[in-house]
């Protein structure tokens, strides 16, 4: 994948010093190539030890080098003498895709007498691509005239490659996250639609049996069809509410009586024949204040917790069992607990019970409790697991409406 080069940045600044001028290798005073004080001794050795290419460029012809240190041999494979003798060498070694913008930026910086910071690609003598960071400043005389350009080229190839790898890794992580979210969304939709679709199938089957009997009772047929239609509407509302949650849309809330919601959830499971053989006990606090919630979503949570309790009892090979639903106050929140007398959970399951796709059931997909916790959390409440002496107890809280 081709990387787009970073644009050059022109930086206006006051140069706090005048860099010492350099002597052109092979130059003389007569040839007019001497650009100032001769670099000798320790200062020259320091320049040769710099980790980048130190250069002095002509003020009249950007790219024409008056001095280059020996680092150019290491980075680009050219001798300093070759760099100075060939005025077009620097421009020629700039990557073709970067050349125009870099030359334009340098020319503009020279005319405006401003500093420049730029990143671009250069080609070594052997044809390898090297990323460089070019930083240069104008050196002015006492009258403010441009004397020369002092610059430094640093090799940033490794940094650029690391940045490219990081971008690729980040893109791959985003792709994987997108797939994970899509899988969770599909599983959540399948889980939430399962109940109304099963109910629709049951009512349709009842209607077909009445029709096949040859002498159907109109009132019973009408009841089955009406119930099936109601479940279709229910499935549509489930989809709308679930997608709103997954897209972090605002949850529509109202004042909900938790005691009534609990009774309705139990009634739905009883009507479906789901809790045959399991005794449902209701311990509901009198005058429990209303909570601020979405009634259908709270009902979904209650039904899911009740179904889990029934499945835990039946999963232990028992046909009889007990469920209890208890409402109470928990400080300034209303509290609901659903408890079963099943076999309970082991330590590993307790730690993972709310994770998406974790399930202890052979045919489960492991989204029910994850969705339930997300729904309660979206309402400003909390859902958690308690472990009594036998079975499991799931409790949740919701804020009061008043």
Can you tell me the CATH class of the largest domain?
Answer: Alpha Beta
Remind me, CATH topology of the largest domain? Heat Shock Protein 90
Fraction in beta strands: 15-25%
Which segments are poorly predicted (pLDDT under 50) over 5 or more consecutive residues? 1-7, 9-40
Structural class: alpha+beta
Could you state the CATH homologous superfamily of the largest domain? Answer: Histidine kinase-like ATPase, C-terminal domain
Please state how the strands of the largest beta sheet are arranged side by side. 1-4-5-6-2-3
Biggest beta sheet attributes: 6 strands, antiparallel
Give the helix proportion (percent range).
40-55%
Following the backbone from N to C, one meets helices and strands in this order, namely EHEEHHHHEEEHHEHEEHEEHHEE
Termini distance? 59 Å
Bulk shape: elongated
Radius of gyration: 39 Å
What's the helix and strand layout?
Layout: E1 9-11, H1 41-48, E2 53-57, E3 65-68, H2 71-76, H3 80-85, H4 89-93, H5 96-112, E4 115-123, E5 129-140, E6 146-155, H6 157-212, H7 218-246, E7 254-256, H8 258-271, E8 278-283, E9 291-293, H9 295-315, E10 321-330, E11 333-340, H10 347-352, H11 368-378, E12 382-386, E13 393-399
Parallel strand pairs: 8-10
Antiparallel strand pairs: 1-4, 2-3, 2-6, 4-5, 5-6, 7-9, 10-11, 11-13, 12-13
Helix pairs in contact: 6-7, 8-9, 9-11
């Amino acid at each position: 994948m081709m990387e787009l080069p970073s644009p050059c940045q022109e930086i206006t600044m006051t140069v706090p010093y005048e860099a010492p001028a350099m002597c052109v290798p092979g130059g003389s005073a007569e040839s007019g190539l001497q650009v100032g004080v001769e670099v000798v001794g320790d200062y020259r050795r320091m320049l040769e030890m710099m980790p980048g290419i130190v250069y002095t460029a002509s003020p009249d012809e950007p790219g024409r080098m008056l001095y280059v240190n020996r680092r150019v041999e290491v980075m680009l494979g050219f001798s300093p003498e070759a760099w100075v003798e060939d005025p077009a060498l620097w421009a020629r070694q700039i990557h073709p895709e970067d050349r125009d913008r870099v030359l334009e930026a340098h020319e503009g910086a020279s005319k405006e007498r401003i500093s420049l910071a730029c990143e671009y690609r250069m080609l070594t003598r052997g044809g390898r691509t090297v990323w460089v960071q070019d930083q240069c400043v104008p050196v002015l005389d006492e009258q403010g005239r441009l004397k020369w350009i002092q610059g430094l080229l640093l090799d940033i190839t490794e940094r650029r490659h690391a940045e490219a790898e990081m971008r690729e890794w980040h893109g791959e992580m985003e792709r994987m996250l997108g797939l994970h979210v899509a899988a969770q969304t599909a599983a959540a939709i399948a889980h939430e639609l399962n109940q109304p679709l099963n109910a629709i199938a049951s009512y349709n089957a009842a209607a077909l049996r009445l029709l096949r009997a040859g002498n159907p009772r109109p009132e019973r047929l009408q009841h089955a069809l009406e119930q099936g239609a109601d479940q279709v509407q229910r499935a549509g509302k489930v989809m709308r509410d679930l997608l709103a949650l997954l897209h972090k849309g605002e949850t529509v809330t109202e004042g909900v009586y938790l005691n009534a919601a609990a009774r309705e959830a139990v009634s739905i499971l009883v009507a479906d024949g789901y809790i045959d053989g399991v005794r449902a006990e209701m311990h509901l606090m009198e005058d429990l204040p209303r909570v601020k919630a979405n009634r259908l979503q709270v009902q979904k949570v209650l039904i899911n917790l009740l179904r889990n309790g029934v499945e835990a009892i039946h999963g232990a090979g028992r046909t009889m069992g007990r469920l209890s639903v208890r409402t109470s106050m928990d400080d300034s929140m209303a509290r609901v607990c659903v408890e079963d007398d099943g076999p309970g959970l082991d330590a590993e399951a307790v730690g993972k019970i709310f994770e998406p796709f974790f399930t202890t059931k052979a045919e489960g997909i492991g989204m029910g409790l994850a969705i339930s916790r997300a729904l309660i959390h979206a309402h400003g409440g909390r859902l958690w697991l308690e472990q009594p002496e036998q079975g499991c107890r799931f409790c949740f809280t919701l804020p009061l409406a008043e």
